[in-house]
Amino acid sequence: MHTLVPVDLQTEPYTIRIEAGVLSELSRCLPSAAQAVVISDTQVADHYLALVCECLQENFERIDTITVPVGESSKSVEQAESVWNQLAELGTDRASVIIALGGGVVGDLAGFAAATFARGIQLIQIPTSLLAQVDSSVGGKVGINLPSAKNMVGAFWQPSHVVIDPSVLNTLDERNYVAGLAEVAKYGVIMDAAFLEMLENRVARIHSRDPEFLSEMIARCCQLKAQVVVEDERETTGRRAILNYGHTFGHAIEAVYGYGEYLHGEAISIGMQMAAELSAEIGMLKDDLSLRQSQLLQDLHLPVRLPDDRRLELLEAMKKDKKVNAGQLRLILPEQAGFVKQVIAPSEQTLLSCMEAFVNTD
Amino acid sequence: MHTLVPVDLQTEPYTIRIEAGVLSELSRCLPSAAQAVVISDTQVADHYLALVCECLQENFERIDTITVPVGESSKSVEQAESVWNQLAELGTDRASVIIALGGGVVGDLAGFAAATFARGIQLIQIPTSLLAQVDSSVGGKVGINLPSAKNMVGAFWQPSHVVIDPSVLNTLDERNYVAGLAEVAKYGVIMDAAFLEMLENRVARIHSRDPEFLSEMIARCCQLKAQVVVEDERETTGRRAILNYGHTFGHAIEAVYGYGEYLHGEAISIGMQMAAELSAEIGMLKDDLSLRQSQLLQDLHLPVRLPDDRRLELLEAMKKDKKVNAGQLRLILPEQAGFVKQVIAPSEQTLLSCMEAFVNTD
What we know:
CATH topology of the largest domain in chain A: Dehydroquinate synthase-like, alpha domain
Mean pLDDT of chain A: 94
Largest interface: A-B, 40 and 41 residues
Structural class of chain A: alpha/beta
Strand order of the largest sheet of chain A: 1-2-9-6-5-3-4
Number of domains of chain A: 2
Helix content of chain A: 40-55%
Oligomer: homodimer
Strand content of chain A: 15-25%
CATH class of the largest domain in chain A: Mainly Alpha
Order of helices and strands of chain A: EEEHEHEHEHEEEHHHHHHHHEEH
Radius of gyration of chain A: 20 Å
CATH superfamily of the largest domain in chain A: Dehydroquinate synthase-like - alpha domain
Number of helices of chain A: 13
Largest sheet of chain A: 7 strands, mixed
Distance between the termini of chain A: 53 Å
Low-confidence stretches of chain A: none
Shape of chain A: globular
C-alpha cells in the first residue's frame, strides 16, 4: 500500500511517495547517480543511516555521509559552512545527489546546502519526523537561521523526490511527535474543515500512532500543502502565505525564548491559538473555531500558553519577520474553520492586549 | 548615446543599459521601492557611493549602505554572514532591493546575499570594473569561495537591471583595467573572430580608454554573453560552458597562488594561453590562434606565464573544479579563432607536460 501525491510544479514536477516500510525498499523509488551524500543528524543516523546506505548501494557508485548535531542550533551559518567544506572535500559535484535523512532541521540545512553548493545540486528528501513529513520536506523552502531571525537565509529549492515512511515515527520521541501534530492541525484550520473535524474525532488513534491511520493523515497533509505550493511556488501570489498561519507569532516565540527551548511545532501551537484569539478579538472570526482549536491542541498535548510575560520582546521579534513587507506586518487570521485570510496586523496595543491572555503576568 | 542589450530569459528577461555618465542619472533607469541597500567595497564607496545614494533619493523611501573590504577575500562565508546580519539589522525584507555597486567581488557577494536573504530579493547590478561590466554582472552567477575552491557556494540569481557606466573606468587602476581585458579577449577567441581581429587592431585605443570605443567594446561583450546565457541559463545544456574558457586553469592558479596574488583576469589570461597551447599540443587547434592570442594578451599587458613550478598543485586544484562532472575533468579548448569545444581533459601526463612551458623550472 502506498500513496503518491503529485506536486505539479510548472518547471520541475515531482512526486511524494508515502508508504509504510519504504525505507527498506528505497532502491526502487530513487534514481541512480555517481555519488550520493546522505546528510543526517546523530540521532537519526543511529537509527536509520546504515539501513539507508545499505539499501542504496545499487543506485550510487559511491555513498558518503555527513552527520550534524541534533537540534535547531544546527540550522546555523557555522554548520552550513561545515557542510559546504565537507562536500568540497568529498568531491561532490553537479552530478551528485544530496539526500536529506532526518527531521525539519536536517531537511532545511541539507536543502540549503543542495541549493547553494556548486550553484545547486539535486535534492532528495527522506523526512523522519512528523513535522518534516507533513510540512518542511514538501514545498522547496530550505534555509538556516540568523541569530536575530529564523529562516532568514535560504532559498526555494525543490526536491526531485520526497519519500515518506510513516513507520519511522514509531522511533520518534513523544515530544517531537506531538510537536508535529501542530502542523497537522494547522491544515485543517486553514483549508479543510472536514479534516479538522476528523482530527477532533480521532485523537486516540492519533496518539496510538496507528500506521494505517498515520499514512492517510500524512497523505492528506501533503495533498493540501502540494495544492498551495503549486498555486504559489515562490510566495509571490499571496496564496502560500496561508501556510504561515501561527508562524509569525510562533517564530517570535522561538526567537525570544531561544531556538530549542520550544520545539517549532510547540511554538506554532501557541502561535495558532494567538492568531485565533486575535481574530475573535477584532471581530473577524465568525464561528467557534478558537474554542475548538484550543481544545484540539490541548487534546493533542500541545501548549497554548506561555510561562511568563515577554510580550514586548515578542512584538520586536515579530517586526523582524520575513512576512513584514515594506515595513508592514501581516498576519494570517482565521475567518472560520477551514478558511484564513492575510490581513495587516492591528495596532501594537491590540496585539499586546490580545497576547495578555497568553502570558503569566505574576 | 546609450545601448540597450536585452537578456531574453524565459522567466525573467532584463536589459543591460550601457551609457557613459549614466551613474549621475540612475534615477530614470531604476525602479522604485521602499528600501534599497547599496553594497559596495571601501574603494568604490570612496568614489561613487555618495553620488549613487544622492541620485536614487527619489526612487527609494530609504537607502542603506553596506561596505565590505576590497579584494577577493571578501567573497568568504564570513563576509556573507556579516552581510546577512547587517541586512537583518537594517530590516531588509522581500520588498527591498539590493544594489551591487562595485567590481566582480562585490557583485558576486551582494548577488549571493540577494539570492539567499529572505529566500531571495531583487538585485540590481551597477558594475564599476571592466571585468564586472563585461562578464560577472551579466548572467546571474553569484557566489562566494570556500578555502578549497573558488565560487563553490552560490546560486543562479538574475539581476532585474544591469546599468553600466563606462566612464567610471577612468578611475579604475591600470592593473584592474588590464585584468578585465582578459575576459574581453576571451569573447573574441571563443565566439567572434571579427571581434578578436578588431581588438588586435585597436590595442592603442583600448589602452587610451577612449569612452566611445569602450562603450562599443563593452556592449559587444554583453551581447555575446547574453546570447550564451539565454541559450543556457543554468549551465545545463553545455552551451554556457564555453564561457569557462581558460577558467579551469585560471581558477586553479588563483587557488594555488592564493586568491589575491593574481587578479582573476590575470589568472584567466594565463589559463586561456594554457588552453590554447594544450589544444595545439593535442592537435585540436587548426589555425594560428595560439600565437595570435599570446600576442594580443601580451599587447594588452596581461601575463601568459607563471613564476615557478607548482604544476602538481595546479592539477590537484583543477580536479576540485565545479566543471569536474561525475569525476571527469572537462576543458574548453579552441578549434580555431572564434570557435571552442568542451572536451574531456587529456591524461595528467599530457597536462603536466603542456604546462611545463608555462612555469619557471629553475
